[in-house]
Amino acid sequence: MFKAMCATQAKGPLKSIEFDPGRLRPNQVQIKVRYCGLCHSDLSMLNNDWGITQFPFVPGHEVVGTLEEVGGQVKHLKVGQTVGLGWFSQSCMTCRQCMTGHHNLCATAEQTIVGRHGGFADRVRCSAEWALPLPERLDVSKVGPMFCGGITVFNPIVQFGVLPTHRVGVVGIGGLGHMALQFLSKWGCDVIAFTSSDSKRDEAIKLGATSVVNSRNPDDMKKLAGSLDFLLVTANVDLDWNAYIDTIAPKGRLHFVGVVPNPVPVPVFNMILAQRSLSGSPLGSPATTAQMLEFAARHHIAPVTENYKMTQANDALEHLHAGKARYRIVLENDLG
């Protein structure tokens, strides 16, 4: 029997339950959970904001733990390894996207907390391709958020060929943005942090920003006109997108990883004249995630975290809902 923290209705409290996971499938592995990050997507799913949550619901898709059982078809992993698991937990392995290494774009990919129980539990299962061994140099108590927030901001760096010579802007210095600053700085970029909170200025510089711009100051925004090769939006609020587009250099790109609530009005004429691009991306493939982990280990990159016990998950959710998290929350398994 697995133990987990579970909600029975939208916006309801998490309560401890036990459930029978059934037999381990030949292509699956079973992870004994040590830590699990708390992501804003967990809160959105708990509230059924996207209309896809199935109850009873167990959150948790930033898992770090030890392989406890390995299916008979799994040859590349072994019991006792420390692994991580993120948003995706299975892909078909036969479609064009999977066969070309883009498992995260598989049309039938299974999400760890959609229609199945996630990592706010003592154990969790996934298809073996999504259980990724951790480099030994990473801190297991901090690395969980990298399997969602970390790979979300690292993936576009790889997918869109960001270069060390590029000048890159990061919009929103929160759970995603604070990791983007670290990756881009160690990538070699000139990194501009956009924030509406002066309280984050000093910390943004410590995390790797070359400079910090107050996004509410029109004069500061105009000084950047046509200068950014890549502008990464991690915020999930509506902003003055025309002002941001004006900061992008010819052949530059405005890229979204934050889910802003409303359609983005794009001045097409300005996009055409400067040959600018607009794009978005989800989390990365297993291969890109492994690349991110190695890069983070090599450059000592880690999220800034706050810690709770898993039995304190309701307190952690309230802390996140209140906007007080700095910058990611990690739960330590104390269920068993």
Per-chain topology:
Layout: E1 2-6, E2 15-19, E3 28-38, H1 40-46, E4 63-70, E5 82-85, E6 88-90, H2 96-99, E7 110-111, E8 123-127, E9 132-133, H3 149-159, E10 167-171, H4 177-187, E11 190-195, H5 201-207, E12 211-214, H6 218-223, E13 228-233, H7 241-245, E14 248-256, H8 268-273, E15 277-280, H9 286-299, E16 305-309, H10 313-321, E17 328-332
Q: CATH H-level name of the largest domain... which superfamily?
A: Medium-chain alcohol dehydrogenases, catalytic domain
Describe the sheet with the most strands.
7 strands, mixed
Distance between the termini: 11 Å
> Shape, please?
globular
Instruction: Tally the structural domains.
Output: 2
Topology pattern, helix = H, strand = E: EEEHEEEHEEEHEHEHEHEHEHEHEHE
Query: Which spans have pLDDT < 50 for at least 5 consecutive residues?
Result: none
Describe this structure in words.
- With 336 residues, the protein is an alpha/beta fold.
- It folds into 2 domains: 2-148 and 302-332, Medium-chain alcohol dehydrogenases, catalytic domain (Quinone Oxidoreductase, Chain A, domain 1, Alpha-Beta Complex); 150-280, NAD(P)-binding Rossmann-like Domain (Rossmann fold, 3-Layer(aba) Sandwich).
- Helix content is 24%, strand content 26%.
- The protein is built from 10 helices and 17 strands.
- Strands 3, 4, 5, 8, 9, 16 and 17 form a 7-stranded mixed beta sheet that branches. A 6-stranded parallel beta sheet has the order 12-11-10-13-14-15, covered by helices on one side. Strands 1-2 form a two-stranded antiparallel ribbon.
- α3 (149-159) crosses α4.
- The radius of gyration is 20 Å and the shape is globular.
- The mean pLDDT is 97.
